[in-house]
Amino acid sequence: MRVMCADVGTPPASEPQHSSRDLAVRTSSLVLYAILVGLAIQYGIERFLSDNATWITYVNFGTFLVTAIRFFHGNSIYHERPIAVSPLRFMMDFYFSMATLIVICVVGRSINEPVRFIFALFLLCAVDGTWGMLSMLTQRRSRPKHFIIWSALSFTFAALTLAVLWAGLAHKHWLPPVLLAIVLGLTILDYVLCRQLYFGTRQ
User: Which phi and psi angles does 103 have, rounded to 5°?
Assistant: First the structure.
């Protein structure tokens, strides 16, 4: 899960604001997210520096790092947004965040294991895409088109990784650079299509 695509500026007066308790809970959640993402990056660095690391490990580490940073960036914006949500919606966000973090840790620990690495990327995008769809269906005040964009990006990459596993291409030497290029491309698309959210510029 990344972020809820809501406007991050000052909300209309009719929209409920965070209470101090809401802010405390969201700040704690962000701290937990930062710790676990840091732990996932540590796992990746350990494998990056291991004696049995190869050039494939290094390329996969780049793919993992871009993905982890992108997810953390989005999640930090999500926790800063000034619009309150229902307890049920917050619970959904929290559990999808935890599922995402667990999978990110698996991705970091699998950079030198091609099949597990690609399967972990598939799970990550499947979880994120599912969260985006549910958010689009339950969010009333923000613009659903952002959730559509995120779900489309995540499900597209999930389908690609699943096809790679199905075709038995996980051990091909040309695959890691291709995956890194695709992840970089998706990241650029994410930032361009959701630039209002990330950078506050006009769309």
Answer: -70, -35
